[in-house]
Amino acid sequence: MSDLETRLAELEHRVGELEDIQAIRRLHWAYGYYIDFNRPDEVADLFAEKGSVVFLSGEYVGKEGVKRLYGDWIQQRFTGGRPGPVHGLLLDHFQMQDIITVAPDRQSAKGRFHGILLGGWHDDFQETKEEMMPQQFMEAGIYENDYVREDGVWKIQRLNYMMQWQADYESGWAHTTAHLQPAAKTYPEDPIGPDVLLPESEHRETWPYRQDVPMHFAHPKFGAILAGREKG
Amino acid sequence: MSDLETRLAELEHRVGELEDIQAIRRLHWAYGYYIDFNRPDEVADLFAEKGSVVFLSGEYVGKEGVKRLYGDWIQQRFTGGRPGPVHGLLLDHFQMQDIITVAPDRQSAKGRFHGILLGGWHDDFQETKEEMMPQQFMEAGIYENDYVREDGVWKIQRLNYMMQWQADYESGWAHTTAHLQPAAKTYPEDPIGPDVLLPESEHRETWPYRQDVPMHFAHPKFGAILAGREKG
Amino acid sequence: MSDLETRLAELEHRVGELEDIQAIRRLHWAYGYYIDFNRPDEVADLFAEKGSVVFLSGEYVGKEGVKRLYGDWIQQRFTGGRPGPVHGLLLDHFQMQDIITVAPDRQSAKGRFHGILLGGWHDDFQETKEEMMPQQFMEAGIYENDYVREDGVWKIQRLNYMMQWQADYESGWAHTTAHLQPAAKTYPEDPIGPDVLLPESEHRETWPYRQDVPMHFAHPKFGAILAGREKG
């Protein structure tokens, strides 16, 4: 192989990695836009065949698990099962601060994101008024997700959402205990429950309790990647 | 053409597309920074010659239309016509969650963004206190914009801002009816009005009313691009 | 040098620039995640040997200065010196809207970012309750930072944080005077003070006072880069 061909092959790999990062950012932002509007089918399409999502210390497994969480639970609670947006109903998820690390073979990746949720319903809203949910609330969380390239397309392998706090709008984070507590029962005993509960070591009490959220990119191996590499 | 040259030409195209995405993100973030500070001239420079902006179901056309909206209306209302920032005056637009899709010929593109606005004036602020505007308010919206490469530089072809909700700070989104309502009259009958009203089918009532915000990237053609492509 | 080699070398430079931008975004997002959790050592690792940080019109110089600000002052105030997260304590910095411009020789760069801070402590929190800090507050700021490639790795040369406003949660930005005022004394007279005060011309009164925040990317030279370049 000529010197030119070697350089070209290396450059193709570097460009491929930049495209991977771009594709995964796009995947997560799309996830955000779909959950704003309560679209469980579109959300499920973003997951790998054996993908899963972690929410409130429970793991929802496979496309069925994903749809149970975003459909049977969240969409049902907020919109009575209709895909949104719905008059007077707010569930805005703002997504930002992406740190994505692609494995050397470009077949898997990790991603961390920061999210803010503003939700609730307007006085004019005449439908589902779930007792468990305050009329207007804020929430923030961190994602530490796994991705996989499946049939040539990047998909979510495991979406691990770690809620950091919840706050009723009126009283704020200083005076609110999170209205969502860790899952206690699994499906089907709880018809909207997760397939499995996380092991005790990964169980997370909610606000005002806090836990560390380990950063995949602070790993010694990824540390060097963190701040760039000299590449000529 | 040799095999190496073919591979190089393909790679040049892929790198060009990554640069396009980067340039368009930058263009939208710059737009955000300029409107924070009420700089209608700088905002207008980001638009194509025949660019336009959609706001409250009305379309402001050309550089004159853009300046009418960001200058004669918004800057005039907030700062009395002075470029900001201005003491005691807040109009912070936080921009995030970019999904940008470049056309195969790299001459046009589409972009979706999420934005939050925190605005109002401090008690110390002694100037324009527009009756129509609450003293402190929040707003969020989604953009679905069109871009064009003009004389080799990416410009905004059509900025389509779709306000999702407004909330007085004191009462929140649950108890606020949007203080901004859809445009009813055009320029010059309304000296700060749009050049044209959107057709009835695109007319958008404001919060607590909601409408769908179609996602350009969910288009079947762009769907494959959404989650990345295998490229070796 | 053959035509192919010339094209390849040019493309290597363009890809390197895209990688630089990606590395610097990642560097700033990591900074955000570390300050959320009060990790002054990890923060200091992101800075160049002679790096510095500007906060409240004072400049903290070198790794010692960086640790004095994020450790002796902020971590001490919020968590009593423990690395976080800490039960009942909130200090979420949401980072977004990156505009990064790499110098032609790819050895230095500039970056602008937008940040929101939500902070305070829960009623259950039994520790440091600093009198100077309201129990729940919001803040926003703009960064105009300098970066340098040091030993092949991108580092922060000068982090220039310009707070734009602060607001007690209860009363909002309309009725709050910033609880943080410009630095008045330097270290060691003030044991948590900066090494130097900015010159009078760069001194910044805090909210409701406002100052311009010049945009590095609006510089005539960088203007052409702003909206992309035609590259074939």
Task: Give a verbal description of the structure.
The first copy, chain A, is of the alpha+beta class and 232 residues long. Chain A has helices at 3-36, 40-45, 62-79, 220-226; strands spanning 47-55, 58-61, 89-102, 108-121, 136-150, 153-168, 196-197. The first copy, chain A, has a single domain (3-226), classed as Nuclear Transport Factor 2, Chain: A (Roll), CATH 3.10.450.50. The first copy, chain A, is 28% helix and 32% strand. In chain A, strand 1 and strand 2 form a beta hairpin. The model of chain A is unreliable at 219-232 (pLDDT under 50). At the B-C interface, helix 1, strand 3, strand 4 and strand 6 of B face helix 1, strand 3 and strand 4 of C.
The helix tally of chain A amounts to: 4
Low-confidence stretches of chain A: 219-232
As for the CATH topology of chain A, it is Nuclear Transport Factor 2, Chain: A
Structural class of chain A: alpha+beta
Radius of gyration of chain A (Å): 20 Å
Write the layout of secondary structure elements.
Three copies of one chain form a homotrimer.
Chain A: H1 3-36, H2 40-45, E1 47-55, E2 58-61, H3 62-79, E3 89-102, E4 108-121, E5 136-150, E6 153-168, E7 196-197, H4 220-226
Précis, in short:
The first copy, chain A, has 232 residues and is an alpha+beta fold.
Features:
homotrimer, 232 residues, alpha+beta, Nuclear Transport Factor 2, Chain: A, seven-stranded mixed sheet, 7 strands, 28% helix, disordered C terminus
